[in-house]
Design a protein that fits this description.
This protein has ten helices and 26 strands. Helix 8 crosses helix 9. Helices cover about 20% and strands about 35% of the residues.
Length: about 450
């Protein structure tokens, strides 16, 4: 789709916008001339729409003021169901305080705009205290593309058409924004490991890919669960980066627990369940925690292997695989996170080292991809609106896949750089903006996305 520079005229025309004729098919020009309103972000304003023979969008000052338009940047135009859209207008919610968005953070966020020409429009970052709910405007920093020099400019901006959440909103604020914007705020809401089990364990297909898990709320329940397994994982309900994940081994009434602390592997032994529970209450700060059957995942050089699968929605609204990254845990570690000493290996190289031939490696890649996308496709049925996920999947010695975790709280895609794959990394940054563009009504026109056919058997893709 072509983009057109927007200019505010010096004329005193009353609420007028002049659009380039080349932006539309010939048979839609009459429809455009009969339009009486325009959408910009979350704002809808009545105006006079005209077709001109210029390559720019020309807007009268009074209309520009009502829309809170930022001029001199390229916008796309679309006629959608008798509605005229100029945009996209996309907001990235990144901080609680406007004052915390300093020069270094602004430079870091330029990575999202590396392929700005694929998005165009008004893209800005903002903080919670920059929201003016009464006037439906936001104080933030908008991206200003300039030849040879990119920059951020501070200003008051309209409520966007879409918000991409990088941190969580207070529920009251998100409720107010949703009343204005509808279901155009993602990744939202944040969820935890307990939610995943509750949602998917009863699914006749996807439930087969979850290791048995319970939320521990009393000692009897805990003892009953661990009596059925020699090894279990203990995990906090929330959290990320492998923090407070522990492996518990049980031998009669002897318990050994392994965990990470301050970057080192730690081990504790207990002669009674009472002493173990005293330790766990302190370890989890007297909060409920999860206990999960410990999977016997494949290993490489004695270290556990799993796969970080990055799936993201594109500008047609469909889920796409960005990449699959094998992670090999540090020696003796109970988690595979890179932050806990793990490392990455290219998929095909690791598969070769594990004894997979090219055909079986390809089949595994497709199985992992399809499983991850099917989980992503199911999340909306639980009220979750996501466009950017990091899904952790394990492979056991029987060639069966297992869901370990789904990360929607700021999934960290810098892991891609550990493989030197800059192209996939840059794409992982632009994809959420492409999805936001779709939600603004300016993406590709797509159809209905259907899930893949899955089988628990180890031969079916």
């Amino acid at each position: 789709m072509n983009a057109f520079l927007l200019k505010v005229t010096q004329d005193n025309q009353n609420m007028v916008v002049v659009l380039p004729a080349e932006a539309f098919e010939t048979d839609t020009v009459n429809v455009i001339n009969n339009l009486t309103s325009i959408e910009f972000g979350a704002r809808f304003v009545n105006c006079t729409v005209r077709i001109g023979h210029t390559r720019t969008i020309l807007m009268s000052p009074d209309l520009a003021e009502q829309l809170l338009v930022v001029p001199e940047i390229p916008y796309e135009i679309r006629l959608s169901k008798s509605k005229l859209i100029i945009g996209p207008v996309i907001g990235l919610y990144v901080s609680k305080k406007h004052g915390n968005i300093g020069p270094s953070r602004l430079r870091n966020y330029l990575i999202y705009l590396r392929f700005y020409e694929l998005i165009n429009g008004l893209i800005f970052i903002f903080a919670l205290d920059g929201i003016n709910a009464d006037e439906q405007k936001i104080r933030g920093y908008y991206y200003c593309p300039r030849e040879g020099e990119d920059s951020w400019q501070e200003g008051w901006l309209p409520y966007p058409g879409v918000i991409y959440k990088r941190i969580d909103f207070p529920k009251s604020i998100e409720g107010q924004l949703t009343q204005v914007m509808g279901d155009r705020i993602f990744n939202s809401p944040f969820f935890n490991k307990c939610d995943l089990w509750n949602w998917f364990s009863g699914d006749p297909v996807l439930g087969q890919y979850l290791p048995k898990t319970i939320l521990v709320e009393d000692m009897a329940q805990f003892l009953d669960f661990i009596s059925g397994y020699q090894k279990v994982y203990l995990k906090p309900v929330g959290g990320s980066m492998g923090k407070r994940v522990a492996l518990l081994e049980t031998h009669n009434q002897f318990f050994k627990i392994c965990y990470r602390k301050l970057g080192a592997n730690c081990e504790e032994s207990f002669q009674s369940l009472d002493k173990l529970m005293i330790f766990l209450k302190k370890f989890y700060h007297n909060r409920p925690f999860l206990v999960q059957h410990a999977l016997e995942l494949v290993t490489f050089n004695g270290s556990t292997v799993d796969f970080r699968v990055i799936v993201q929605r594109d500008d047609s609204g469909f889920w796409r695989l960005t990449t699959i990254i094998p992670r090999v845990g540090a020696s003796g570690s109970v988690v595979n996170n890179i932050s806990s000493g793990g490392n990455t290996v290219p998929f095909n190289k690791l598969m070769e080292l594990l004894g997979f031939n090219p055909e079986s490696s390809f089949r595994l890649y497709q199985r992992i991809k399809k499983l991850a996308i099917n989980f992503a496709l199911t999340l909306p049925s639980f009220g979750v609106h996501c466009g950017d996920l990091g899904i952790d999947i394990g492979l056991d010695g029987r060639n069966l896949l297992w869901l370990i975790e789904i990360n929607n709280v700021m999934p960290d895609h810098t892991i891609i750089l550990d493989l030197g794959d800059r192209e996939s990394y840059y794409m992982s940054k632009v994809m959420p903006l492409k999805y936001a563009k779709h939600l603004c009504g300016l993406g590709q026109l797509g159809g209905v996305e259907c899930p893949f056919v899955l089988s628990r058997g180890n031969q079916t893709l």
